[in-house]
Amino acid sequence: MKINVINPNTCLAMTDKIATSALSVANPGTEIMACSPLHGPESIECMRDEVLASAALLDVIAEGEARQVDGHIIACFGDPGCDAAKEIALAPVIGIAQAAFHFASLVSHRFSIVTTLSRTIPMAEHLLAKYGFAHQCVSIRAAEVEVLSLETISDSLFIDLKQECLKAIEEDHCEAIVLGCAGMSDIAERLQLELSIPVIDGVVAAVKLLESLYCLNLKTSKSFIYSEPPQKHFSGRYAHWSKLRE
Amino acid sequence: MKINVINPNTCLAMTDKIATSALSVANPGTEIMACSPLHGPESIECMRDEVLASAALLDVIAEGEARQVDGHIIACFGDPGCDAAKEIALAPVIGIAQAAFHFASLVSHRFSIVTTLSRTIPMAEHLLAKYGFAHQCVSIRAAEVEVLSLETISDSLFIDLKQECLKAIEEDHCEAIVLGCAGMSDIAERLQLELSIPVIDGVVAAVKLLESLYCLNLKTSKSFIYSEPPQKHFSGRYAHWSKLRE
Amino acid sequence: MKINVINPNTCLAMTDKIATSALSVANPGTEIMACSPLHGPESIECMRDEVLASAALLDVIAEGEARQVDGHIIACFGDPGCDAAKEIALAPVIGIAQAAFHFASLVSHRFSIVTTLSRTIPMAEHLLAKYGFAHQCVSIRAAEVEVLSLETISDSLFIDLKQECLKAIEEDHCEAIVLGCAGMSDIAERLQLELSIPVIDGVVAAVKLLESLYCLNLKTSKSFIYSEPPQKHFSGRYAHWSKLRE
Amino acid sequence: MKINVINPNTCLAMTDKIATSALSVANPGTEIMACSPLHGPESIECMRDEVLASAALLDVIAEGEARQVDGHIIACFGDPGCDAAKEIALAPVIGIAQAAFHFASLVSHRFSIVTTLSRTIPMAEHLLAKYGFAHQCVSIRAAEVEVLSLETISDSLFIDLKQECLKAIEEDHCEAIVLGCAGMSDIAERLQLELSIPVIDGVVAAVKLLESLYCLNLKTSKSFIYSEPPQKHFSGRYAHWSKLRE
Amino acid sequence: MKINVINPNTCLAMTDKIATSALSVANPGTEIMACSPLHGPESIECMRDEVLASAALLDVIAEGEARQVDGHIIACFGDPGCDAAKEIALAPVIGIAQAAFHFASLVSHRFSIVTTLSRTIPMAEHLLAKYGFAHQCVSIRAAEVEVLSLETISDSLFIDLKQECLKAIEEDHCEAIVLGCAGMSDIAERLQLELSIPVIDGVVAAVKLLESLYCLNLKTSKSFIYSEPPQKHFSGRYAHWSKLRE
Amino acid sequence: MKINVINPNTCLAMTDKIATSALSVANPGTEIMACSPLHGPESIECMRDEVLASAALLDVIAEGEARQVDGHIIACFGDPGCDAAKEIALAPVIGIAQAAFHFASLVSHRFSIVTTLSRTIPMAEHLLAKYGFAHQCVSIRAAEVEVLSLETISDSLFIDLKQECLKAIEEDHCEAIVLGCAGMSDIAERLQLELSIPVIDGVVAAVKLLESLYCLNLKTSKSFIYSEPPQKHFSGRYAHWSKLRE
Predict the structure, then answer these.
(1) Residues of C in contact with D124 (CB under 8 A)
(2) CA distance C211 to chain D (A)
(3) Residues whose CB falls within 8 Å of the CB of residue D243, separated by 6 or more in sequence, listed in order
(4) pLDDT in tens, B135-170
(5) Fewer Cβ atoms within 10 A, N terminus or C terminus of chain B?
């Protein structure tokens, strides 16, 4: 099967990191296609970034569909554009926040999210409510690090992030940690080893869920709200959407 | 005061209709600037449309800010891009769904929404939950009409919409009707007259709320999640966002 | 238009303060009629006070209706008797708690309430749940001051109240403050200036909402639960209710 | 022990009916004092009635306290004035709606309420939410009968009420019926016999709960929100409250 | 009437303590039959214990039914096996957690639970949600004592438990305490005396509720989910369930 | 990896069916060990069955642990004993209801459950709430078939089940179907083909989730509520639990 792993920001180092993580858990028969949009922000840290990245991401979804991929991963913790992507794709689409929450709920009674900036906390709260995991999340903690600083995680940054996880364990009594940014994908294993509780990265989680859906022959239901959108006229920089599937 | 009334789709007839409604209730000292984006879909009827319209709408918000408006109205019932707009604007931003819900909750115990297509119902449900009015909404009914057909509302279309309102009153026991599309703005008054219960159009509702905020000297709090977003690099068709406020 | 601004307690200095606030934001064409009941407590600080004030307040609503006002404001933060008032009035009725919550939700993601005595906190919690704003309120803080002490707010009292607001900002991360008593109406502006986040007084908020409803031609729906109550016999000190509208 | 069974309306036939029900289940050592206020409506069927009855009822609570009763029952299904009564009484106070819900939740998984007029349904919904039983109530059905018509329940009225119960069983799949008016107290037994599922009357339920509290030496906690209200000045027809407990 | 008071663990000293408590509040005509299962754990402190105790407890329910008791009490704070017991019993069944919550909600606005080990807290949270009392419980505090240590409560253990109650009062502002283990039944009275707020033991609470149901002629509704289970084949150590009621 | 697929009832034909389903989707390196308890009911259709099956199932979990399996599946839609199993197992444990819900939420906005007997509906409702998927489930429909009749699904039974699915699609507007019994595992594929929307069987879903957890190196967090239970004395038929891990 072919998986379209999309880094919705334009930071290519992040795309590489995500690809490496995805590959590390993919089944032998799984082909990982990592990509990112040509347009949009270099990192996603607020609603403005999310709105612009979502619009750009839809192009990458459409390209993946044209290449007949078997699944799409939206590798940003806000799951930007996920519902719109499900409309335009026949292959299933998974955001890494949702993927991470699913596994966190399987291995713990209560989990915490450790994320980048506190201004993204409301986005995470929104996703917890949307997906139904709010009652299982005891805290969302921001280490107050910029997303781009995660490109290469220094030792001192690792310690800061680990420190925030320890607070979640000691003060909030969480039993598992969900990493709140695709850019933390490469430290999940080390953190789990040092913290002795499950640490969940959404990128690898999403790969396994897509492989599972593929094996189970399950795709997004196209019977109602994710059915193909009506054709219509688009203007200006979105004019190419007018012709799609014509 | 100056109000930036934004029709987030590119259908200019709709923009005119919205402008007319807004003007009809504006205070003497209120200047209505009606506009719509250069880019994006001609109507907003699914998540794909909403995502693309949201990105395009942010430009119109930025232009309004450059012209120092005192408030922005997002005149599409999905309130697309509203949170991102609040980040980039100093002037307050109001979506017409939120505006309509506020007034519906003031004049009724339970209200219904009458909207266009049933595939937009989940978007309305999401907004009811987000704003806290879910417990006051007894039903969301779709008349199954396309948004563009509302450009000029024929007599038979009016009857269809009224019929849906009557079902909401008789079957769902609502006490007020919220109109689920800016394109219905021009029939609110006639519907209220014929139905004998309050019928609420979000466009005029939003104008009065912005005028109220202006008079009360209240603006979006910029102290936390709606604070100005960090400057960063944007690529391609969003490159102009890199320089904003530089 | 004529607005019946009701101070539900019998403290006339409070009535004057409320009238001054209401007038300060009223449109040129708006006539403010400030009044208070002949009967009942001099301040409302517990459920007993609220129950007795609610009964007395209905007389003042009826008098306003007789004078054909275009709207009623219940200027006590517990919104006492608001639902009953909606039954007996044709003109719309707004409580200042509800009014304040509406504007707080428009200008912030999360707000705090700063109120008088902690024993009134459950009343505020009840209203937040009733109106649907509980998820947007991060804290209710009582400065532990008696309502009557707000008649004239001394400098030291102002500092105490401001201190409580600062705690709400620093410890609870609120983005706006809702003032939990009509008696704080006159310090809203100064507090907003000193705190640099929106500070919302329900008295002025309610005036603008009633003016908006008037302009939009919206009144309380009389089609179901706020319809005119059945005529019946009342005994003793409520005997005058037997004849109303006969 | 002495129980103050209060019919909050002024219909004495109803007071007698309630007294009879209460006596029928009281323990040998329990003295039932049935009474009703001198002031207020002859029946409680809307918020106006509830507000006026609540104020009048507080006098009857105070009289009961003066006579050192060991508990108060508010025998109207809206539990009017219950929280205020808890403030001014040392003896426990129970409303019949709450009492009925408690027993319904003990003998069924899901119950229905059969009440008088549909305009009282929102009051019942409010109490279900307040007390925490909303998830156990599958329907509230109004037989559309006036409260006073329950003074003497005719055969045809009994059949109407039973019919509504049968609909609740067949259409809503309830497992028990809660009677939504003290005036139905005398038909509970017959209904239970004919319906073959538990039928719960709040009047008798409240008697047993008060006797239980008495035996268990439990009274309303006076440590916080039900603590004795502050002394203050009351005007006019409530002037007697100024002196209470002085 | 005859009440089957079941201690679901096999610790006989606990059974005696529970019997003593139950007897202390029983009406003259009430016969208390205290018993415990032959099989299962000596204390219930985790889900494993609860699952095994629940299975064993059903035998004791069946024996009580054979002896035609008029009610069953499940005297362990997790209310183990309560729903299954309701299926197989004609007489009503009450768990002590549910019983305690009912009385706590009658005498306080907000209560706290003081329990044994923190690993049982999620069980208590589950019951609060199931029964509808979650919004009235401000905290669940574990004194970190093993259940068996409550067999005989030493002075120092009493002080530890009281200390936890004091924290609930001072830090969480509770107005009443619910004791989270049947083994604390004998200190409820002393705690209430020393804490000056209501302290509720579920064992005595359940006795009074069963006596009340008996007097009110109310039993578990057998019309739907608690109807008699279908007969079927059971293997091995549960083979005796195959023949029941044949 | 080795997966312990447990049929919690004693019907061996059902165990075989479950094993066949599990094998059909297992990765090449996955060993499926299908088993069922020696003790307990031949089918699970009420709370009594669930309680007894749960106790018996814990033995099978312990045996699987002794054989060092890498995961346990509880293949009954009520997920009986799942939390207790997580306490006593080091390997992850998944119930098929939870597994099915996860995949249903990934491929649809709203799903329905089609199950056996309506008396099991409250169990399914409980699991939806517990796992956080209640808001995504639009209906639970019972075909009113006994579990054992699913041993071999006749053509007429298939038609009945399909009919119930069609009603869920047409009347409840679901976008996917979750099969509410492990005994329906063998018709999932055919149903999906004929209904043209996703049909989810929890048995195969659980296999893929366990394989995913294994690959991701994630196990049940043993840091708090699922930590190893305290050793203690068990009597009678549960005496063997006294010695476990001694």
Answers:
(1) none
(2) 26
(3) none
(4) 999 999 999 999 899 988 999 999 999 999 999 999
(5) C
